[in-house]
Amino acid sequence: MDKIRIDEIDERVDSATVQRPLTDAVNAMNVALNYYELAPGDSFAYGYHMHEKQEEVFVIQEGQVTFETEEGFVSVGPDEVIRFAPGEYQQGINKGNERVIALAIGAPQEAGKSEIRRACESCRERTPNTIERSENGTVKITRCLECGTETARFE
Ligand SMILES: [Zn+2]
């Protein structure tokens, strides 16, 4: 048995306002578990993305999340759960005025190949992106894989 307090787990630099990785803290063996808080405008993810081998489930506890999905935009609120299959593209963004609190569960832990797409100003379209960590580790930068343009910074 493993029990933790979520607010005792250190935050990680991420696209989200607050991300606390819980997987290792509870010694989870088969699922990846993350706690999220999203201020208005923030996202769970660095872009519209998919994981080749991992399904993802989001449990929204507070606020309202707008997911861009392959089937259009879907709004998910408290007491609702949304699940994406491996290979399915999605991105959840807080487009409301309230802070979002949510849990994300991914399985298996090994996600396989992941692809992230963001709008690139130079290419004038959504392109595959890579994520870099700044030298001091406090910033993450997304960059267009086709032309090298920086598409966003997350601190
Ligand atoms: Zn580009």
Layout of helices and strands:
Elements: E1 18-21, E2 32-38, E3 48-51, E4 55-62, E5 65-69, E6 72-76, E7 80-84, E8 90-93, E9 100-107, E10 114-120, E11 125-133, E12 140-144, E13 150-154
Antiparallel strand pairs: 1-2, 2-9, 3-10, 4-7, 4-9, 5-6, 5-8, 10-11, 11-12, 12-13
The structure holds zinc ion.
Zinc ion binds at residues 120, 122-123, 127, 144, 146-147, 149.
Detailed description of the structure:
By secondary structure, the chain is an all-beta fold. The chain folds into 2 domains: 107 residues, Jelly Rolls (Sandwich), CATH 2.60.120; 42 residues, no CATH class. It is built from no helices and 13 strands. A 5-stranded antiparallel beta sheet has the order 1-2-9-4-7, with no helix packed on it. Strands 3-10-11-12-13 form a 5-stranded antiparallel beta sheet, with no helix packed on it. Strands 6-5-8 form a 3-stranded antiparallel beta sheet, with no helix packed on it. A hairpin with a 6-residue loop joins β11 and β12. The protein is globular, with a radius of gyration of 15 Å. The mean pLDDT is 95. It binds zinc ion. The site of zinc ion has 8 residues, from loops.
